[in-house]
Amino acid sequence: MTKINLCEACKRKEIHVVETSDDPDQPYKLCNHCHKRLVTYSLRPLEWYNLAVIHSPNKFLLHDDLYEEDGVACQPEENIDVSSKDKAPTLKNVQDDLESLLDFSITRWFLEDDVVKCLKKHPDLSILNSVRSRFYGTENYEVKSRMLEIIADVLGAIASEWIKELWINYDETYLYPLSRATASSLPAEEGLNHVFEKLRQVNEKELPIAAFTCLNRFRTIEILDWIESTCTSFNDNWGRLAAVCLPTWERMKSWLYKGRPFSLIALDTMANCVKGYGDYYVERFSPKVLGTNKDEIEKVLRDYYQQDGVPRVRMKVNFILENREEIFD
Question: Which of 17, 85, 93, 98 has the fewest CB atoms in 10 Å of its CB?
């Protein structure tokens, strides 16, 4: 008996169109009606959801300029009739079934805390087996990355052997999500050795953002040592990274005494400890400068300003002094 391949969107009718405009390597496979709705931004919520599970919601024809997170079209060019059976699943609908919950996780713009909590209610080994299977079963970058995010936020050390396997068979495409999963799964020294080795292959211009993205979850002073041996020019991301890696006042003083670029990185590190100065990826760790002799803060900073009296330094020094109670511990 011949197997009938069904439309990826409605999952009812046969495939008649292979649409490659978003991604030639992973085209949409659709019936005629769903294809028309796709290219006119008029998918029904469940059709959008089914496609997002396979292709992720980050593809152009599915992204958030065109659809809400529940699959409701924002800019449809055709009329859309939506019945109750055409609505996309909610977290409540899928939370008790692991495979349905993993599908749901792929359709989210971010791996939300509520989804993480629901995933943690399922057996670890079942999650690991399903995540591995999905990772190897697709070439979609976003879906693979989401599986590694689940390792990072849900499983941690349970996945250590698989994470080691991924480093052995390293694919540079997945350096960022693999590094985040590594921070949760492997001992810090082992994980950092893997990441440091691969960061040596990143060009100087891209290194600061790559370093922050790969290393911010490790939160260890060894990263501050690595910054000292690696950094050759100022970039905002060095201060972001240093702020979440347990900086001490002694380290900040030594960087100020070194002069640029480390003096500017020290100022940025301290400023990033103020809530609202940085971004979510820094603030979630509530960073502090540790082991501070608070009696010497103002003198050290004022002395540095005398050596480097440009406006940006003056503004940053004043900002740090105004917020010293929040920054220093």
Answer: 85
